[in-house]
Amino acid sequence: MTEVQYVNHNQWVDTFGVFHMDRAREKRVAGRIRRDYRYILGERSGLASPEPSVPRFRTLWESGDLPAALDGQGCWRLAWDSPVDASLYPFVQIDVEVHGDGAAFRVALQDAGQRAWSAETGKLPAGTRYPVYVPLWEAEGLDVRQLTSLAVQGDAGRKLFIRSVRLTLSGADRWTPLAE
Known about the structure:
It is elongated and about 70 Å long. Helices cover 11% and strands 35% of the residues. The chain has 2 domains: 1-51, no CATH class; 57-177, Galactose-binding lectin (Jelly Rolls, Sandwich), CATH 2.60.120. It has 2 helices and 10 strands, in the order ααββββββββββ. Mean pLDDT is 78; it is low at 175-180.
């Protein structure tokens, strides 16, 4: 016959399984949790904080009405006067319009120590406005706290237009067809 072990759920809920560092005495946390629960649901209406600690995105450059295009050599470069700290954001989002063919292009980042890192996009659908997300955690050897420039490199003569460059908290694979 197997022995069934009884668990006192009331005791477990009162401690939530948390013990002091000596691991001998129980740490009563239910009072603290109840107080915080009342505070969050009462004064904050269910929101732990009225404002997020970091904005959802930070715009580094925006074109306005006329988007920027690749030059004759197939390059577009954005340089900042002072280094940009991108350490709080996991993605650089580049909003591009793709006309003609849907070939891939390269995004290059450079930091204050003149170290460079680049990534190539997949083939983008032609005739679309597409947010391209560059994952900063993959930028090995690059100091993302001191970015000095960003470059978009493609084939010469490509019809690729840049609308905006942002730092963002989340990435998504979505594209929008351009109005013909």
